[in-house]
Model the fold of this input.
Amino acid sequence: MVGIVLISHSGGLAAETAALARQIGGAKVPLAAAGGTEDGGLGTSPDRVSAAVEEVDQGDGVVLIPDLGSSVLTARLLESPGRVVIADVPFVEGAVSAVVAAGGGASLDGVLAAAEEAWHFRKL
Amino acid sequence: MVGIVLISHSGGLAAETAALARQIGGAKVPLAAAGGTEDGGLGTSPDRVSAAVEEVDQGDGVVLIPDLGSSVLTARLLESPGRVVIADVPFVEGAVSAVVAAGGGASLDGVLAAAEEAWHFRKL
Amino acid sequence: MNTEFFAAWIEEITSAVRAGRDHLTELDAAIGDADHGTNLDRGFTAVGEALAAAPPGTPGALLVLTGTTLIRKVGGASGPLYGTAFREMGKAFGEATEISPAELSAGVDAALAGVRRLGSAAEGDKTMVDALAPAAAALSRAVRDGLKPEEALEAAATAAAGGARATVPLQARKGRASYLGPRSVGHEDPGAASTALVFGALRAAASR
Amino acid sequence: MNTEFFAAWIEEITSAVRAGRDHLTELDAAIGDADHGTNLDRGFTAVGEALAAAPPGTPGALLVLTGTTLIRKVGGASGPLYGTAFREMGKAFGEATEISPAELSAGVDAALAGVRRLGSAAEGDKTMVDALAPAAAALSRAVRDGLKPEEALEAAATAAAGGARATVPLQARKGRASYLGPRSVGHEDPGAASTALVFGALRAAASR
Ligand SMILES: Nc1ncnc2c1ncn2[C@@H]1O[C@H](COP(=O)(O)OP(=O)(O)O)[C@@H](O)[C@H]1O
Ligand SMILES: Nc1ncnc2c1ncn2[C@@H]1O[C@H](COP(=O)(O)OP(=O)(O)O)[C@@H](O)[C@H]1O
Ligand SMILES: [Mg+2]
Ligand SMILES: [Mg+2]
Ligand SMILES: [Mg+2]
Ligand SMILES: [Mg+2]
Done:
């Protein structure tokens, strides 16, 4: 199954988004939240993010979903074409779509495409 | 100043998004997080949301930003054209844009338009 | 049908929801977040308390209080939706103390219109609308054809149950289940299933 | 310029960042999240410890270790960016033990290319690129024109400082400041300001 890492400035935001996505998308998706600095502050820790990538990597690829700013740059440091890819998507909505697609057995490209569809969902 | 209410299934998600938006957009924006049910579970409490609307209403209007599902429906119950309006936007990114615009003194329509621009931001 | 009749309906719904709670929650586990049964059970329990605390004097007032309580207490998307449905039906009844079958049918139409307006779901989107819309249509036709009240309510209940079953092959296009896309196919929509219970309870109230 | 020279540069940066920490953080308070000074101070303190723990034998190794440490320890967007800058410069130096002015200039170009690739910022986007790009260009021209090393580094430092000041009227188009839109106008970009400190430190190292 494709793994997913949610990267945020805020540890809480990443964790809460992961919980919501897991609740909708099913519990079996390899999903990790990597938010905040190592000392629990606001920011990004590349060490945390790469540990999260290893944690969710089952060999089918990993999608990184960053929120903004340093999360995006940290994600870029870990990009590895065909294996670890960044989804440029709305954080919460893209995470839900990606987790659902991964849970449904989609390929790395399929999960990425599903996450990108979140740009086109309307809520009303 | 225009008030903003973040409505989520998850109390933590609303609160963490509010904290991030506040950090970027400035501390003086009237902003409330209304997430979760009254007993702290996942879901939406219309009573909490209407209390939040009252809390942030300074007379210049209030923008409701829902995440998905019941948050959207709860927001719709509280809509009141020209006074309490829903922003159909990506939750985190739209919240940041809306808070920044409100902090800059934008009108209700201006805050709504700023939030909607979040659909067009790209991160990479 | 008087205030007592509608109070009996709410009681029948409450029992049906209690009995069906785990089944509804299982349906919601497949395409939602596994809380539809507990949401409605919590909501109707609160409705029972609210009605007992200040018993309303008309069918309209009873249904408005039911709806308002559901909105406040359910916690999920079905709260605003069912809440709006009962409120709209209650408002359609106005101050009347006795409701004719034609008025009941118009009330169900008002409920359907309210749910559609709030949730923007069309038939086929795999929501409670897929049970509510055929029930409203069947009731309307039965009344037009001059069926006896119990027969008319039987027709509505049958149509709601059929509508709920017919959601199984559909793909969800509204609510959180819509995020599941094709994965939502093959499961009955929980809100449609509970709507079938609501119309089953209406028939049961009539044969009390 | 040998390993000692580059170690002196890092020391000078560390002192300048410590002294300028509160100013950098104030700049970041206006258009960011008020942590740029503390971020860099934390990062360069960690660099000092890393270099002391395992002193590298070449300028290249020293800069790569500096960059890797910044990436791991800064916590903000400037971590990956400065980290990449120092790593790319270090990689450009290879195994050489003595770096000529021309090689230094090529190293700064590599740093700039790395920052651009990672952050996709162009000149005028109100980022550190607005200080780094003119510094790289000034250094390159000074070396081409055969200026003395101290003069070349003076030119680079002056260009970086001018580039930083020139960010004041710009509107941010990259990083979190871009969410501020027009509200970002009228403030110096913190990352451009710190880049000016980095080139000031390079000149200082040369005149030690
Ligand atoms: N926009 C909508 N329009 C009509 N019905 C909807 C809509 N959104 C959700 N529903 C109904 O609500 C049901 C889910 O209710 P529930 O589980 O209580 O809420 P939640 O999804 O918030 O957990 C769905 O099965 C569906 O029938
Ligand atoms: N995409 C980017 N490209 C180049 N520089 C950037 C980019 N994003 C941010 N920066 C630089 O980083 C600085 C902010 O650094 P810092 O405050 O440490 O990180 P953060 O914004 O994550 O808190 C900005 O002032 C800007 O110069
Ligand atoms: Mg549910
Ligand atoms: Mg729910
Ligand atoms: Mg910062
Ligand atoms: Mg920061």
Remarks:
- Residues 97 and 127 of chain D are 32 Å apart (CA to CA).
